[in-house]
């Protein structure tokens, strides 16, 4: 165990690969309101930085600190269990990033600050005892999905429009956040053994990999079906068709994954999830045209 952490390991704790979902959702929020940034490009860049390396990175550091005992079983090569980052340094790192998140959020106005407060609270109650919503296979993935997709989408929309977003923006942001519950459930497959040992009741632990995979697929598909229906109701059939075709491709990927959920879940996260987030931006642009027409 080192007394001073490796700089490389401190950056590794931020898990840059996880930054994309909230950053993408924030951009979807900006696109969906139909407001050209104009002189507000600084808010766009600042929001992307806040959503990805700062808030998302903070949540990853906090989660790794709280999960250090589980990671010692599942992934002992990670920065904390491997000894490259002392636990007290990791905790201080997470707290410092929480403070930085609130400082940057305050620069985005009252809506941006409010959303940042919610995001920071969500990150801690997901991981830290005694609340630790991560222990629930239902509440944990739901909170992460809403935090990764709905909250940054809403924030981007609110910051650019300087006010509460319209009903179409809010309902679509919530639907995609709910669908992300399935993505988070599939992400739990990699920690199956450690979760069993540590008493974390993820869905793969509770109901087994096969049933958990079916639940995850259903949770991802249903919100997208609703989105397609809403786009048709709102008079955007071309966009509805594109999102629908994306969903059909996901159905194919789901069938492939169901042959061996344990082995194929990471593959689906690289294929099906890419289709999922592509549909998010298509939907955001569809709402943008709706907002402009109104």
On the 0-100 scale, what is the average pLDDT?
A: 92
Strand segment count: 0
Helix content: over 70%
Q: Which CATH top level class fits? A: Mainly Alpha
Order of helical and strand elements: HHHHHHHHHHHHH
Uncertain runs are none
Number of domains: 1
CATH fold node name: Farnesyl Diphosphate Synthase
Q: What's the shape?
A: globular
> Main sheet, how many strands, which sense, barrel?
none
Number of helices: 13
Give me the secondary-structure category: mainly alpha
Radius of gyration: 19 Å
CATH architecture: Orthogonal Bundle
What is the end-to-end distance?
60 Å
Strand content: under 5%
Describe the protein:
The chain has helices spanning 7-13, 20-32, 41-66, 68-74, 87-105, 109-127, 139-161, 167-187, 192-198, 203-207, 209-233, 237-258, 261-293. It is mainly α and 294 residues long. It has one domain: Farnesyl Diphosphate Synthase. The chain is globular and about 60 Å long.
Offer a quick outline of the entry:
Helices cover 77% and strands 0% of the residues.
